[in-house]
Design a protein that fits this description.
The complex is a heterodimer of chains A (358) and B (135). Chain A has 358 residues and is of the alpha+beta class. Chain A is built from 15 helices and 8 strands. In chain B, the strands form 2 sheets. Chain B has a 5-stranded mixed beta sheet. Chain B has a two-stranded parallel ribbon with strand order 6-7. Chain B has 135 residues and is α/β, with parallel strands linked by helices. Classes of the chains: A alpha+beta (358), B alpha/beta (135).
């Protein structure tokens, strides 16, 4: 006998409104349909009615977790249109903040995944380290979210205590590599909840255009920081973790390994950051033109198309967030899965519905 | 395949941009180009629509090939039917629905282009509404 079960838009397993309706035969999911748009704010429409300085603040609010990435990518697009050369020191500072944001995002997600698996101790461990990252972001920017670091042609603030940032990431690296990754990969509870669950094949990942850790956990070896280096990434050494299994466990491991790589990137960037200015003089408009900027955000590629007619307002701002690309893959992941695994499978995407809806 | 090989497979005159490569094609060639992209393991990235200076709309299907962005662009009139690629490229389904929400573009070969961000029953073409023009 088949049942149609709605989950959402408001549900205990969801931090934000979103709806998935699953068609089940007994306990097995045979099909699903997804509904988004509950957080729709019309940000692209709004961006055409704000000047570019206001747009930086507006676009920083696309996402509450990877907020910095959005203002940074928007600024990078405008810098491309205006031919603005960003000072080298500012590029390194942008890398440090972007990687701290990735640490914050991944540790948050690992904690939530642990909680959904019923592993409270692991949840507390991940959140303890996430809190330390938030403290560092606060010490740099004054804010725990929406850091207001970016401006056209650089950044607004320097890093006041680089040695403390380094010691924080070293501590995270030590615990994640020495305790948390061995725990995740050897614990029978984690394995039972995640191994072989919510599989996304490599061919499906490509057909759906999946991005970020979701794609990399399905064997798609892609990372814009390495494949199309921007800012100071070409000067920094890091690996791009991938897995072939495409299941929830693979997504956990890829993100945990990316935490280690981000720690290494932050440490290198702080050691190598050159002296010099952190921004060019104030810019309030750019010449007519258009540009596309892409950045590897914590959840995957962020895509910005920006067009300017030379005035202080953009004529078009198109934002494609990583979760927008990744959520449709849930339909492929839940097909054939147990109904009880649906919340964990959709959470394993590290979805951000506010990002998606904009 | 790398991006140069994909460009060669698809053919045409590609223009290099700071952010990748662009190919302008007639609207009827969009499906063939998209099919070739998927066969080459390119990942669909984004569909960008914006009003063209000469009137009508510019539509650009953007694909990622190992970090290189390949954009296939076409220009259409406001009332043109645009071929859908969602039947073989599931990643484009939401992009097409959103483009209809924003610019009231009609895609053929789809049973329905349900609203993605707008509510059921809302008029498509939200980006064309004037300020205060919420329906």
């Amino acid at each position: 006998m088949s049942y149609r079960i709605p989950v959402g838009p408001y549900h205990l397993a969801l931090e934000e409104p979103y709806k998935i309706e699953v068609e089940c035969e007994g306990e097995t999911v045979v099909s699903s349909s997804l509904k988004v748009g509950f957080n729709f704010r019309g940000i692209e429409w709004l961006a055409q009615r704000k000047n570019i300085t206001q747009c930086i603040a507006l676009l920083e609010r696309v996402c509450g977790i990877c907020s910095n990435v959005h203002s940074m990518t928007f600024c990078m697009a405008l810098e491309q249109i205006g031919g603005v050369e960003v000072p080298r020191r500012a590029q390194y500072i942008r890398v440090v903040v972007a990687e701290l944001e990735r640490l914050h995002s991944h540790l948050l997600w690992c904690g939530i995944a642990a909680e959904l698996m019923g592993f409270e101790t692991l949840f507390m461990q991940f959140f303890r380290h996430r809190e330390a990252v938030m403290d560092q972001l606060e010490s740099i920017s004054g804010n725990r979210v929406n850091y207001s670091m970016n401006r056209i042609g650089g950044v607004n603030r320097d890093i006041p205590k680089p040695k403390v940032v380094c010691s924080t990431v070293q501590d995270i690296h030590h615990t994640v590599s020495g305790t948390l990754i061995p725990l995740v990969t050897s614990d029978p509870t984690v394995a039972a909840r995640t191994r072989g669950v919510g599989v996304l094949t490599r061919s499906d990942a490509i057909a759906y255009g999946a991005v970020g850790p979701v794609a990399r956990a399905s064997g798609v070896d892609a990372d814009l920081r390495r494949d199309c280096p921007y800012l100071a990434y070409s000067d920094l050494k890091f690996a791009v973790p991938t897995r072939q299994d495409g299941d929830v466990l693979a997504r956990v491991i890829v993100r945990a390994q990316e935490v280690l790589e981000s720690c290494n990137i932050v440490r290198q960037a702080i050691e190598q950051v050159p002296e010099g200015p952190i921004h060019v003089s104030d810019i309030y408009s750019v010449p007519a033109g258009e540009a596309i900027a892409r950045v590897e955000a914590p959840r995957g590629e962020v895509f910005y198309y920006v067009a300017s007619d030379g005035s202080d307002k953009p004529t078009r701002v198109k934002v494609r967030t990583p979760t927008f690309a990744n959520i449709p893959t849930v339909s492929a992941m839940v097909k054939g899965a147990d109904l009880a695994d649906v919340p964990l499978i959709q959470a394993a995407l590290d979805p951000c519905y506010s990002c998606t809806d904009r | 395949m790398n991006a140069a090989e994909v460009r060669e497979t698809i053919g045409g005159t590609w223009t290099e941009r700071p952010y990748g490569w662009k190919l302008c094609v007639p609207v009827a060639a969009i499906r063939d180009a998209a099919l070739q992209m998927l066969r080459c393991e390119a990942r669909f990235s984004a569909l960008v629509a914006m009003p063209a200076e000469a009137g009508g709309l510019r539509l650009s299907w953007n694909w990622d090939v190992k970090g290189v962005l390949l954009s296939i662009e076409t220009a259409v009139d406001w009332d043109s039917l645009v071929p859908s690629i969602a039947d073989f490229c599931p990643g484009a389904d939401w992009a097409e629905r959103e483009t209809r929400d924003y610019y009231a573009v009609s895609f053929d070969r789809r049973d329905t282009t349900a609203p993605l961000m707008l509510r059921t029953g809302d008029e498509p073409g939200m980006m064309l509404r004037p300020e205060g023009g919420r329906v």
